[in-house]
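Fold this sequence, please.
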Amino acid sequence: MRKLDNRLMKYINLLVERYPSLDFVKDDIVAAYLLIEETYENGGKLLVAGNGGSAADAAEHIVGELMKGFKLSRKLEAGFAEQLVAENVELGGVLAENLQGALPAIALDGHPALSTAYMNDCEPLLCFAQQINGYGKPGDVFLGISTSGNSKNMLFAATTAHAKGMKVIGLTGAKDSKLMDMSDVCIKAPQTETYMIQELHLPIYHCLCLMLEDKFFA
C-alpha cells in the first residue's frame, strides 16, 4: 500500500491521539482514503448510504463536508471563475466570488420521492442498489455505513456497485460481517454497541474528509 506523505499523515496521527482505540484501524483508514483519492483524481464520485442514525449523522454529513468547504475556503480555479464572468458579468461575478470547489458525492438516502416510489412499486431493500445502478460508473466508490455490517440493503448495494465496476468501502462495527467480506476496504470501528460505533464513525469520516480537502484544495 502506498504510504501517505507527512502532510496527510498528520490527520491520521491526530485522530489516533484523540481516539487511541482507532490505532487498530488506522491502516484501513489510509487504504480507504487512497481508494477515494484515486477516484477523485480520475474524475469519479463517491456514493454514500446508511440507515437510521448512520444516514442522518454520517451519509448526509460526509456529503456536506465534501461538496463545500470544510476547513478551507476552496476558491474556484481562476479559469472557471473567468468563464462565469464571461457568461454573465453581474451574475457570474457573484458566482465566481461565492462558489466553492467541490468533491462530487451523493447521499443515497437523500431522495425521498425516488426512494418511496421505488419502495412502493418495487423491492424496498433494493432502493440503494437502484440508485447505484443509475448513478454508478466504473471507478466510482460506494461507501456503505452499517453498524452491524449485515444490513441487507447495504449488501444489495455493494453487490450492485461491484457489478458496475466500482470499489466498495465498508464502515462498520467491530464484529466480522457480510459487508466486511464484500468490501475492498472495511473500517471496523472497535465497538459493538450501535451508538458507540456511531460515535467513532464520526471522527473516522471527518479524518477522511480533512485529508481529501487537504489533498485537492490546499
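The mean pLDDT is 96. The radius of gyration is 18 Å.
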